[in-house]
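Dear colleagues,

As part of the handover before I leave the project, I'm documenting each prediction I ran so the next person doesn't have to rerun anything. This entry is a single chain, and its sequence is reproduced below.
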Amino acid sequence: MTRLSVCRFDAARVAIYLLMNETTIPFGEPELMRASVFQRYLDELARQPGATTAVPRLTALSPSLLADLQRFEHRPSGTEVLEVLAACLRHAQSVVVHCEAGGYVVPVTVFPRERLFHCPAEPDTYLLQRLALLKVLRVEPAVLRAPGDSESSLVAPLSCYHPIAPLLWELAMRGSRTELLPEVAGNACYRTTPGLDLRMLQIRSVHRAVIRHMRTQPVTLRELTELIGRGREDAVRLLNALYLQSGLIISRALPTSSAESWLANFGLRRRHS
């Protein structure tokens, strides 16, 4: 059985399970499964012969993406939405992330290459208003395809597709994660990329000023915290947000924590080379 066939089979099982269990859907809203019903479905999967501890949450993913996500599975809270999306972007793999939001399961299908995501429910209502409360229930390869795909039967209505950049930005700035992503953390200086496009994002004026500063002047996390003046957490969130926009240049193995010292040493090395 091919991976796509497996994905379709799993999706069909979820749909059948939904029909066999009582759900309550707000009038006029898309048919979203209750989180309690979905969790019972995951519990049944975990009890099946041959099931592993990762099956209910991470299933049928590529080995590289699976290994990336399993780094976070030992935590009681499991994998954060931000970590999942960051991993999908790094591996350029389309997945569907089943998120618990307000008692319902909202499937968010991510298309890294197209920089899009699909959501059957209104993102402003079911995602952006609950960013700090979102919880990952399950991650699996995407069944849906991006607009323009040759297999048109798997392309959803265009109104359900949205640019992913604003979602990534808001999730980093207002979501539950308050520490640097592993790929950003460590002894480093940070700059913004020259071609960083911020036109679709809602950015505070203080952050815009700092981002402009970082185009020419590398900063450490401590220096960024001082520049923003809103505490370490705000600086951490900004770095995560810039990383998810592919807008961060990271220089590691610094001789000191000072960006000025790093620049001076860099110039000295160039003169002696």
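Residues 188-272 form one domain. The chain is about 40% helix and 15% strand.

All the best with the project,
I.
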